[in-house]
Amino acid sequence: MPESTLLFIAEPQSVTSVFSPLKEAGFQAGLADNLAGAVNFIKKSKPCLIFTRPVMQGYSAQALLAEAVNIENFPPVVIFSRNGSADEAQRFMELGARDYWLEPLSWEKIKLMLPDEKPSFMPEPEQLDAAEKTASSESKGTQGRYQIIGQHPAMARVLGLAKQVAKSKATVLISGESGTGKEMFARFLHHHSDRSDKPFVAINCAALPEHLLESELFGHEKGAFTGAINRKLGKFELASGGTILLDEITEMELGLQAKLLRVLQEGEIDRVGGVETVKVDVRVLATTNRAIEDTVKEGKFRQDLFYRLNVIPLKLPALAQRGEDILLLAKFFVNKYCTEYGLAPLAFSEEATQWLLSYEWPGNVRELQNLMERAVLLAGAGPIESKHFLNDPDAWMPDEVHVEGETPDGELAADADGIAADFAVMPISEMEKKLIIKSLDQTAGNRTKAAELLGISVRTLRNKLNDYKKQGLDL
After folding, report:
1. How many CB atoms lie within 10 A of CB 451?
2. pLDDT value of residue 428
3. Does residue 317 or residue 14 have the better pLDDT?
4. Which ranges of 53-152 would DSSP assign to H, the alpha helix?
5. Please, where are the H alpha helices in 192-271?
6. Is the separation of the CB atoms in 144 and 118 below 8 Å?
């Protein structure tokens, strides 16, 4: 289906890390490294989004954007760069790119751009046991059921309030630490609303400078600035009848805040370079990980806009404040990754359970999810112990490390003279090699994920693999 296909124009190693979560969310990915291949894929598969490097050997994104006039329903293009600049970002946006990002190309950023996909962090009900279903909420929409896992009273209060106001048109300000699930709650509100069959459009207010963000939000007319060769609809018009999420709203410049306030009050926008106002019917949700009241006091955020956004405040608790919810979420993520990697179910040791409950979780649910994937890949037959969370990569010792010459009973074999046989510990280089090979096996050869599990950079992993090839090891 065209609406579930994405095209990546880049080196494979820079993008394959997002293929697994894309597949899990029901999307397919295509990969190209030249203009001809990209154009052929666009015409044949009609992807809904394109993510491309600015330039590679024999390829430029500028040439790709020039093809937009020759292809019907050309998809939005996101440029992602290793060492970008404001000037380059402006140039590509003026050429028609939808967005401009700096690496890394993360799943967290990509999913905000996707058409109304099923979030990977919301499980199907049949994957939950009876305890996990407690205090969960669900809705039947075009993408299936949506759930939020949690039993703690703090989560129950927030979830109850969200469900109560979901069908209204009231603006909602969702606050909480990074990784607590603010975007998840925004989608929850949309899918429980009367607008669930209409668009859900999200934009990160911190990703673009003010003049580009204004064009992204409100659109622009042909000739509004150099390179504006066509009229472009902004996010508010694209979300007409549905919901718009303004992520990291406190990063918006004061001048643009005033224009946003007018949109909220009057229900109309002005395209950049336009002379007529455009009526929009959009429900606005906003998120922030800052103490927004302090930002208002500092004069960095308009007080009147704060009041207009804060009609319904949803403050999400940090994971460390959610008690036994930590274990519910940990169990869910472990089951999820065991299934994804084709492994047998795993349980937690008592020591690991206590560690999970005592850890402070500065990265909240996002950190928990990453640690559970790591543990599944390192635990083998289990049970999962805290060492499998790999919080100190330098202290990691693989389970198969052994002493040569050791008997099954743990005693050293002796020769005829009663002298212990060679009992040299396996060299560190051999341990390292075994662990690297195991990580590649567990991640189906995905070097980016393997490097993350090992706690090293992709470059270091690549250098190690090159050394092994020189030694004659076929990887």
Report:
1. 23
2. 57
3. 317
4. 61-66, 86-95, 107-113, 130-133
5. 210-218, 235-238, 254-266
6. yes
Tell me the two tokens of residue 358.
Answer: 């005592």
Q: Which residue carries 């030694």 as its tokens?
A: 471
User: What is the rounded CA–CA span in Å between residue 323 and residue 154?
Assistant: 10
Alpha helices for 280-427 (secondary structure H): 292-297, 303-309, 325-340, 350-358, 364-378
Asked if 318 contacts 176 with a C-beta cutoff of 8 angstroms, the reply is: yes
Task: Determine the Cα–Cα distance for residues 354 and 384; give it in Å rounded to an integer.
Answer: 12
Q: How confident is the model at residue 196 (pLDDT cuts 50, 70, 90)?
A: confident
What local confidence, expressed as pLDDT, does residue 168 receive? 92
Q: Using CB atoms within 10 A of its CB, is residue 130 exposed (0-12), middle (13-18) or buried (19+)?
A: exposed
Query: Which pLDDT does position 226 carry in this prediction?
Result: 65
pLDDT of residue 229: 67
pLDDT score recorded for residue 393 = 59
Paired tokens of 297: 């006091």
Q: For residue 4, what pLDDT is reported?
A: 82
Place of tokens 């950023």: 109
CB-side neighbour CA atoms (13 Å) of 466: 6
The whole-chain average pLDDT of the chain stands at 79
Q: How far is 239 from 242, CA to CA, in rounded Å? A: 5
Rama region for 472: left / alpha / beta (φ>0; ψ in -120 to 50; rest): left
Q: Stretch 143-168: mean pLDDT, rounded? A: 82
Q: Which residue has the tokens 């990074």?
A: 178
Structure-model confidence comparison of residues 458 and 228, the more confident one: 458
Cα–Cα distance between 352 and 260 in angstroms, integer?
48
Q: Please tell me the least confidently modeled range out of 355-364, 378-387, 464-473.
A: 464-473
State the Cα–Cα distance between residues 100 and 282, nearest whole angstrom.
Answer: 25
Strand 28-32 to 49-52 pairing? unpaired
Here the tokens at position 160 are 């109850």
Q: Which tens digit of pLDDT belongs to each residue from 276-289?
A: 888 989 999 999 99
Distance CA 58, CA 170 (A): 50
Query: Rounded to whole angstroms, how far apart are CA atoms 103 and 475?
Result: 28
How many whole angstroms separate alpha carbon 475 and alpha carbon 383?
A: 29
C-alpha distances (whole Å) from 324 to each of 140, 155, 330, 369, 435 are 27, 12, 10, 16, 33
Look at residue 228 in the predicted model and tell me its pLDDT. 67
Identify the burial level of 431 via C-beta atoms within 10 angstroms of its C-beta, where 0-12 means exposed, 13-18 middle and 19 or more buried: middle
Beta strands 144-145 and 140-141, pairing class: antiparallel
Give yes or no for a cis peptide into 119 (omega within 30° of 0).
Answer: no
